[in-house]
Amino acid sequence: MKLEIERLVLLMAGVLSLLLVALALGHGMAEWLRWACLAAGLGLVVVITRGAGSARIRKLRNERDVLERYFCSLMDSVPASIYFKDLESRFLQVNQAMAEALGAESPEAMLGKNDTDYFKEEHAAQARADELKIIASGKGIEEFIEKETFPNGSVGWVMTSKLPFRDKEGRIVGTFGISSDVTEMMKTQLTLERERNTLRTLLDSIPDSIYIRDFDGHYIVVNRALAELVGCDDPEQVTGKTPFDFFPEDRARRFLEEDQNVMDGGKPLINRHSSLQDSSGSPRHLLTTKVPVRDSGGKVFGIVGINRDVTEQENARMELRQTEHRMQEIVDNSPSPMYAKSVTGHYLMINRRYEELFQVKSADVIGKTDLEVLGDPEVVRRIQKNDRLVFERGEPIQVDETLKFTDGERDYVSVKFPMRDLDGGIYAVGGISTDITLRKKAEQELQALNQELMQAHENLTSAHEQLIQAAKMESVGRLAAGVAHEVKNPLAMISMGLELLARHLPTDDLKAAETIERMKRGIDRAKKIVRGLVDYSSDRRLEFDSLDPNKLVRGALDLVEYELTQAGVTVVFSPGSDLPAVEADQTKIEQVLLNLFINAMHSMEGKGDLEIGTALVSLENVARDEGSRLRERLREGDRMVRITVADTGRGIPDEALGKLFDPFFTTKSTGKGTGLGLTVSRKIAELHGGELTIANRSDRSGAVATLLLKVDKD
Amino acid sequence: MTAKILLIDDEVDFTELLAANLEDSGFEVRQVNDPVQALNEARLFHPDICIIDLVMPRMDGGDVVNALRSDLVLSATPVLMLTALVEESTEEPGELQMKGGLPFVSKTSDLEVIINAIKRLLGLR
What we know:
The structure holds 2 protein chains of 2 kinds. By secondary structure, chain A is of the alpha+beta class. Chain A is 50% helix and 24% strand. Chain A contains 21 helices and 22 strands. By secondary structure, chain B is an alpha/beta fold. Chain B has a single domain (4-122), classed as 3-Layer(aba) Sandwich (Rossmann fold). Helices cover 36% and strands 22% of the residues of chain B. Chain B has a 6-stranded mixed sheet with strand order 2-1-3-4-6-5, with helices on both faces. In chain B, helix 2 packs parallel to helix 3 (61-69).
């Protein structure tokens, strides 16, 4: 209201002054009046103007106050440093923050000073150069960030904008600037950048392919491994593209469908195995994990995918499986049952043969103990004893095991060995059992066969020897008859000559007489040999009688009793009782017995026992070595009388045993035997259908001759 | 009276020696070394006994015996067969081995055995 009145008064005063001025400008008035009017009018104008002016001024002052308040509060409270400089770069205005930042007492203290007062020379020079550029160009430098060392010595970052300061007319009168301490921000940014780089490096260093795909399937983030997987050098070449750019269509579609499922369900896909060909066409095995990624608002905008390349592992795994499979095939096709048992006695594995043998399934056996599998505690005890032995010794052992099955016992030779882990610790005992039942049987059969063969060979050798012997005998026989006659004639002649000489020699010539005697003894020897040959070759028919074997022995003993006694031999005759009669030629059998007695006497060299026995035997009781030749002529069960003549002499040397019955073989000193006694004796025994054999006593205390004679059947 | 012995054997050396021995023992001995001549010699000599070898060439002892037996005078003359073919007797001295009805003595027998045989056959013992 006051203003309105004031304006009304001013309006009226204006009008009055205008009238006065108009009057003054008129010509009808006195000069003085005109001046007066002019003066009054002007005075009024001045009053009006002043009145109006003071109102505006008041208003302006008001506005300026407001602005100044704004400005001041801005200047004082903004955390940024603000300054105004004149063209000489002297401070015109500085705010509180700046004063504080530069360590000045107050903003006012800084007025009229310049950067050199507060900064290092080079900084001040740089600032001055910037400002001159701004003054010259009229263009500001906005928001540049520079590193700054603060007066307190700390180094930080400031973001500065410098602009030209113009007056009302737009003339550049200086510069002003605003600087904020962005050290914290810069630090954060640097940290972020470093983190980002670290992450990037990490991402690119990871051998797994890592990517983030958005909702539409575009790659947003891709690491180097993925770039390489799809055949690009730089991850940048992949970002923004989709799987369709790198994979066959159906595969790419499948990827995206999978992405979609993950995004829809919000659930991650973990380690899905897949194989694909990389850009070079090599097959790669991947384990894919996809996880939905959300923005800060929690909204799913894509997936992060990780493809772990497990090609090497997969190849190794396949190789291992192949090797394992191969080993398993070998193990399963082995005809020997195999198994491994842990230190606690629980089965770790068995092979197919084991399954078949014990009629169990691998799955049922593994984790079980022997007792649970085999049942028989006695068998289990034996097995476990051997297992323990392996653990104790730490080296393989070989054992024979016999196992009972429904179809009988089977023999095994088992190799049991410690199984060691890679550190060398024993964790199990392994076993391989080889069925040797057949082998054992075959071995036994072979042994039996061998024995038979040996027997056959022995028989053959014996038969061969007999044949040779027979042939020898035959030729000796033929020879003997001829020789006997031819030798006997000259012998007779010499004999006659000696008789004659003996009588015609001077009776006192003792030397000649002794010579004659020696010659006669020589003739006697020759005659004996001829006699033996003739006996042997004689085809004279035997004159068989039915004779009591004991009497036969006694008769023969009587003939040599004197000689035996003289030689210091003790005769022990043990006659068998109730012996049947034998069919024999008494003279010939006596000759045989005499021969045996004389041989025994000679072998005992003057002292010992001559043990004679008679007994009835049937052929099956005749030991093998007594009877091989016998069997050809006699049947089992035939009854024979056995006459044994045993001595306690030297026995017969092994090398002589096979030659005893050979003609002219003798162990006696020259002249003592003819070498035909036993040859003839055996011939006689054989002509009787009997047998004469000679062997050493089992204890080597002498020799035993055994004469077998047929029982007289009449 | 000295007994006359006719020795019939193709072995000259043997008959000479045997004859010498027999003569030493007091016999009159004549030798015939060719059996074919034996009968003639016997007829001329009239032996008390003939000692005849069994194995001889051209004519063996058996043939000689047969020839002697066929002679009326000589058929009663005792003969003693002396041969290397028979074994020396193991029997008691004095017992004569008989083969085919003829007494035999081995050529290799001791002289004593032969003389005993001769004496037996001559009935001198």
